């Protein structure tokens, strides 16, 4: 049985849904200069807007102008919360200004007021792949220690503005992406540089910025709950060979647990020395990390991988990370292996290790949904995916007595894919009429999964049929 105040909802990122990329004083973000792509052709970062390129985030699904309609649809589904991010460059267009852009703040004033009117609690990610482009061009992004102060100033602006309005915060989205895709996380690394050391130095600056933000949030409002957000996946050993088992153990530790260790425990674990990277960590940094531990662990989970000691096997895709194909699992169109058991494994691992509340803030199935002749979307495959994961989530909570705060399905409405820039990689309960080239009316259409999730929320997860 899930707790009565369980936070059912969905999760969005400003850069993937808002559009209005140059309206009301907003500056360019790193995502505004990334072109469209697909699963066979990666997105490109152009560093400037080019006339002959299509940038899907510029309009996205126009949530900026349609948020009232969209939040109505969320409220009708019964959402208890909506995870959103704030576009940093909408508040500080260049990132290093002293004074915020009031028109940008006013938009989120309206959004949060609308959510509260509809009984929906905002859950806010402060930085979700939306760094102001000028911070990258002028300072090199997170590799520069100056970014800490810019971020803290931005966070302070939000905490003060939305005191009593927003209670749940997350500092960085999938902070481990800094290691895997540094450019998307706002880190510039040149071809002849030591990418690993620079990426970990940039990550360290984010850890310090996060810890400072946690302390600040608590000092401004003792009711604030601030969490980290880590991308998680499971790596199963390919064989019982001890070295395959060790490879899987390291995969979990280095890919997931390390990031939680610093956020939750407030210091670098001893095994970090084995990574072989040199970063500058001051005594003051260490004190800040120890004093800015998060209140809960937010995490994304979509799929699992197979790991071997020699990477011998067929490779498959996942959320940012790659692994080997598991012959016992089915996969999505994009090669993400469907594994609800992996969610249970992670929930147990995280709760046993940290004894902190957990929050599943991303989970869902990307699929090329097709409209039928009568204008409907029969997405039984999505319902089946979510049913399996929610059933496993409930059983794990009950069996292990885990403190789980909530569940926000990724992309409750179709949005631009962060990884590929496609629209046809759809996650939503609500279809948006737009294609990969930007054509379409943007009309919203409820899918079959909309009504299914509505029933799930109404019964607090008891009816998954």
UniProtKB/TrEMBL annotation:
A GO biological process held by the record: carbohydrate catabolic process
Domain of life: Bacteria
One annotated GO molecular function: beta-glucosidase activity
Keywords of this entry: Glycosidase, Hydrolase
GO CC term (a single one): cytosol
Catalytic residues (positions): 362
SUPFAM superfamilies in UniProt: (Trans)glycosidases
Coiled-coil intervals: none
InterPro entries per record: GH, GH_1_N_CS, Glyco_hydro_1, Glyco_hydro_1_AS
PROSITE patterns named in the record: GLYCOSYL_HYDROL_F1_1, GLYCOSYL_HYDROL_F1_2
Protein name, UniProt field: Glycoside hydrolase
Record family assignment: Belongs to the glycosyl hydrolase 1 family.
């Amino acid at each position: 049985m899930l707790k009565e105040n369980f936070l059912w909802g969905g999760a969005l990122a400003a850069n993937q849904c808002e559009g209005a990329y140059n309206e009301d004083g907003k500056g360019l973000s790193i995502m505004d200069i990334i072109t469209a792509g697909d699963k066979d052709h990666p997105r490109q970062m152009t560093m400037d807007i080019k006339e002959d390129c299509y940038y899907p985030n510029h309009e996205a699904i126009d949530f900026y102008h349609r948020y009232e309609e969209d939040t109505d649809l969320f409220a009708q589904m019964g959402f208890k919360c909506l995870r959103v991010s704030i576009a940093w460059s909408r508040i500080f267009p260049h990132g290093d200004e002293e004074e915020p852009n009031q028109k940008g703040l006013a938009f989120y004033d309206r959004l949060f007021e609308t959510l509260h009117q509809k009984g929906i609690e905002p859950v806010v990610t402060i930085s979700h792949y939306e760094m102001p482009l000028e911070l990258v061009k002028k300072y090199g992004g997170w590799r520069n220690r100056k970014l800490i102060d810019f971020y803290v100033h931005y966070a302070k602006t939000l905490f003060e503005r939305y005191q009593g309005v927003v209670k749940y915060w997350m500092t960085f989205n999938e902070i481990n992406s800094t290691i895997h895709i540094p450019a998307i996380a706002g880190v510039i690394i040149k071809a002849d540089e030591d990418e690993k050391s620079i990426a970990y130095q940039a990550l360290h600056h984010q850890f310090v910025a996060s810890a400072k933000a946690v302390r600040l949030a608590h000092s401004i409002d003792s009711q604030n709950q601030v969490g980290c957000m880590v991308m998680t996946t499971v790596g199963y050993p390919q064989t019982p060979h001890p070295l395959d088992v060790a490879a899987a153990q390291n995969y979990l530790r280095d890919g997931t647990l390390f990031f939680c260790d610093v956020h939750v425990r407030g210091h670098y674990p001893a095994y970090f020395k084995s990574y072989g990277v040199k970063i500058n960590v001051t005594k003051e940094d260490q004190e800040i990390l120890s004093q800015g531990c998060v209140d809960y662990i937010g995490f994304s989970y979509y799929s699992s991988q197979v790991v071997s000691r020699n990477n011998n096997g067929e490779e498959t895709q996942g959320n940012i990370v790659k692994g080997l194909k598991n012959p016992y699992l089915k996969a999505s169109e994009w090669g993400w292996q469907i594994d609800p058991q992996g969610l249970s494994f992670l929930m147990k691992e995280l709760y046993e290790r940290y004894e902190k509340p957990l929050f599943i803030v991303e989970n869902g199935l990307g699929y090329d949904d097709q409209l039928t002749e009568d204008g409907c979307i029969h997405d039984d495959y999505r319902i089946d995916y979510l049913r399996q994961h929610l059933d496993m989530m409930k059983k794990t909570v009950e069996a292990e007595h885990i403190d789980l705060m909530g569940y926000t399905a990724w992309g409750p409405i179709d949005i631009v894919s962060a990884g590929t820039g496609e629209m046809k990689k759809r996650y939503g309960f609500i279809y948006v009429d737009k294609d990969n080239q930007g054509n379409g009316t943007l009309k919203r259409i409820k899918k079959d999964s909309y009504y299914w999730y509505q029933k799930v929320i109404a019964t607090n997860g008891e009816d998954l049929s």
